[in-house]
């Protein structure tokens, strides 16, 4: 493993330097401390009081939407005994977690799908602390939409002393006139647009979420966008809020969260200090669509003031600049496109290839060598949004439309806008077959998925 990170002779000098900078960025190996944390998870149809107290028929992990919050410490081993009581086969994918390929939850690639009635044990030691999530990787446009998702929080070995650690899971539901989940999935409308955008936005499964804090509290707020298609841009102006982590990993330094596009799959962690009383409940508004802002939730201050805990921001990770990365020859440019055909009438393609379902045989689109520096490009030849997600590794955004972008953080999901090209850089470290796909789940189901092999 350590030897796998040696630059090759052929590598351009910039890449070799980028690689040296990289090796301190995040640990190559997990460091299990011997503690195993066991959870049981059952997926089954149930009813929850989700939206305004009405009964909604959902599919849920352990009877709740969002599913259970799994919290462990870095170094601990997670063991999940998973039972499928759905009417369909399924798996659990651990989004953003660097883990052994066999635990990645991709049907037919990393495991047999878990049939109704069957049990499968997922066991791994995460290499990184941070905010991660889990969801099925079988018919995900249906299974995630029906309510199957949960958070995996890996705490630091010594968590920073926030007054509170709060989680907001944002979801977007398309309900029909009876108030139930609209039962047709992968419609032509969804496929011709940015996937399934709903008519009810929830935070932690409610439309009326209020976060009540005491003046002086300093909180860590973790946000996940678990929607199938909707992108949100939460506005925290009016608060002393700093972005400290993206897709799990800490930033190089805290930055203003304004303008962050939280696409399906993305997570952000904020460090918010309530220096003053809020005069009135503050709405946190999604401003992704300037014309149609949505209120996600409210924050109020109440109660006796407390003294804010004083500590340095945990956002001081080693994040290589990689500005030279743009001069490294591009390894591959993926073209993102749509065409007529396929089981849903419209197919979404990468390099004119539509993924023919997990059960078909697939040659990897790319075979990358562990420990090498790569620049990849995504060229969106369509007018639609594509939040591209890569399993099993993090990457850095280098440029949008050829213009360098310096983000002080890694990602596992990047939103590619209509007709945009995006350059990313990465150093794969873990061998296996890893998926690259659009996290607009309808686009993924309609073909926008592929495999990347790492040797
Ligand atoms: Cu959120 Cu292929 O994953
Ligand atoms: Cu897409």
TrEMBL record:
Residues 46-157, 166-277, 361-455 form the Plastocyanin-like domain. Keywords: Metal-binding, Oxidoreductase. Gene3D superfamilies: Cupredoxins - blue copper proteins (2.60.40.420). GO terms for molecular function: copper ion binding; oxidoreductase activity. This is Multicopper oxidase family protein.
